[in-house]
């Protein structure tokens, strides 16, 4: 009696692959909905891109084709794996030419985050938070979104009570600092020799 594995060895390669790849069930989505488009992610991304380019505010959409993404070796934890795998992510993009950041936010980025902008006008950010390249890329994109959304958010106005509380804390901290300074001065004075024989 021959085993199935032995029969597979005798059969020419690719016989089952051709017949299986050509078969489609009557319940396959292509047959049930013949005129539908099944790449849902492309439609969602296309809609987000159109919305981001038309709008005067930032919606969180960052097109990857506008970014220069580079990977390098991380300096974080990971044992020997750190020396073998490029998990650190550096992202750069030309701040003047991107269309998904509104102009008023670009001006604020140049003002408030000048240390993140190179001489060539590229915004630069990096992440080596995890041992995974994909998670570090997602972390970089989240950092960019957080920075841009932080610019768009107005600073909260303090109420009169909050201002008084902050002033009271500052006065208390100053009193405590002066008290510690006085104690330290007295301690130093006690160490000196003031004895006359």
From TrEMBL:
Q: What is its EC number?
A: 3.1.1.29
Q: Which UniProt keywords apply?
A: Hydrolase
Which is one Pfam family of this protein? RF-1
- Gene Ontology terms for molecular function: peptidyl-tRNA hydrolase activity; translation release factor activity, codon nonspecific
Q: Which GO terms describe its biological process?
A: mitochondrial translational termination
The GO cellular component terms are: mitochondrial large ribosomal subunit
Where does the record place the Prokaryotic-type class I peptide chain release factors domain?
A: 73-89
Family statement drawn from the similarity comment of this UniProt entry: Belongs to the prokaryotic/mitochondrial release factor family. Mitochondrion-specific ribosomal protein mL62 subfamily.
Family annotation (PANTHER family): LARGE RIBOSOMAL SUBUNIT PROTEIN ML62, PEPTIDE CHAIN RELEASE FACTOR
Name the chain's protein.
Answer: Large ribosomal subunit protein mL62
């Amino acid at each position: 009696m021959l085993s199935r594995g032995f029969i597979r060895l005798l059969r020419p390669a690719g016989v089952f692959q051709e017949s299986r790849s050509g078969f489609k069930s009557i319940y396959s989505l292509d047959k049930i909905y013949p005129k539908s488009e099944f790449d849902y992610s492309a439609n969602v991304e296309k809609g987000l891109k159109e919305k981001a380019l038309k709008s005067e505010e930032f919606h969180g959409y960052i097109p990857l084709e506008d970014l220069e993404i580079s990977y390098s070796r991380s300096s974080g934890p990971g044992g020997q794996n750190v020396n073998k795998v490029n998990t650190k992510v550096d992202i750069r993009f030309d701040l003047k030419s991107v269309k998904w950041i509104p102009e008023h936010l670009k001006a604020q980025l140049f003002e408030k985050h000048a240390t993140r902008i190179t001489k060539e006008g590229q915004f630069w950010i990096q992440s080596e938070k995890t041992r995974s390249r994909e998670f570090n890329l997602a972390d970089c994109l989240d950092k960019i979104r957080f920075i841009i959304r932080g610019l768009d958010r107005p600073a909260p106005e303090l109420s009169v009570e909050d201002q008084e509380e902050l002033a009271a804390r500052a006065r208390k901290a100053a009193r405590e600092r002066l008290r510690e300074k006085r104690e330290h001065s007295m301690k130093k004075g006690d160490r000196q020799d003031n004895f006359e024989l």
